Amino acid sequence: MRTAIHAITGDEYELDCLPLPTPTPCEYECDEATNEWKPVWPSACPHKCVNGSWVPETATECEYCCATGGWKEKVPDLCEYKCEGGEWEKVYKIDGCSIPNLLFVHFDDAPTPPNAYEPAPGTATVTYTASEFFEPSCNNHDICYQTCGKPKSSCDGQLGADDLAQCDDAKYEFYEISEHGDVLYEHCTFAGAELEFGVELLGMPYYKEDQKCCKPGPCVNE
Predict the structure, then answer these.
(1) Could you give the CA distance from residue 90 to residue 222 in angstroms, rounded to a whole number?
(2) Structural contact between residues 187 and 108, judged by C-beta atoms closer than 8 angstroms
(3) Quick one: which H or E segment has residue 13?
(4) Residue 73 forms beta bridges with which residues?
(5) CA-to-CA distance for 196 and 162, rounded, in angstroms?
(6) Three-state DSSP class for residue 187
(7) Largest CA distance in the chain
(8) Does the global pTM surpass 0.85?
(9) How many Å apart are CA 136 and CA 155, to the nearest integer?
């Protein structure tokens, strides 16, 4: 009968794994080739015993997959995510209002329709840049385009509704700063509608590009 001296306890034992020196609720098995205990991990990559279960021994609590060379991040799709509280949180890319030149880029209190590029000389005392005024609406529109499965028409319609709501919220401000507050409000709603029309007409390539993120993503660097 072959025997050996246990490296930790110093006890002589038959070549069959002794009980683990440190009790653990996680699963181990006796390696007949080395006569040593080895953990029974769910995969070939390292795990650690937490509350009686093997969990991936990774840098974060979010999902990983076992690939050649160790653990690799397994994000929900091909776009950028960050691990927050054990869940993957999408990092949305927002850049405000990208208004093409064909759209009205301002609105003012001149009693004439808003000019496509700048107010008529001497007619306006208050001028808003639409790309700045509607930035919150445009940022929400960017997020909507990047939301998996969200219809483009729904995003564009919401942009128009958000623009109108911003004009409504600013109506009191318009009357505070200009005797032509009603004109400012009219021009505001007109500029918001133009912005909605612009994304309806020109937004499809951007929508398709953003929706590509919804394809399943492989392990990073696998």
Answers:
(1) 21
(2) yes
(3) strand 12-14
(4) 64
(5) 10
(6) helix
(7) 107
(8) no
(9) 14
> Tens digits of per-residue pLDDT, 49-74?
888 788 777 766 677 777 666 777 77
Q: Which two tokens stand for residue 99?
A: 């208004």
Q: What is the pLDDT of residue 46?
A: 79
Please tell me the distance from the alpha carbon of residue 47 to that of residue 25, in angstroms, as a whole number. 14
The alpha carbons of the chain give a radius of gyration, in whole angstroms, of: 31
Instruction: Say what the pLDDT of residue 116 is.
Output: 43
Identify the pLDDT of residue 112: 61
Distances (CA, A) of 140 to 31, 71, 90, 112, 161: 57, 35, 14, 31, 11
Cβ neighbours of residue 103 closer than 8 Å, sequence gap 6 or more: 116, 130, 194, 195, 197, 198
SS3 assignment, position 108 = strand
Q: Where are the domains of the chain?
A: 3-81, 106-212
- Angle formed at CA 127 by CA 121 and CA 131, multiple of 5 degrees: 125
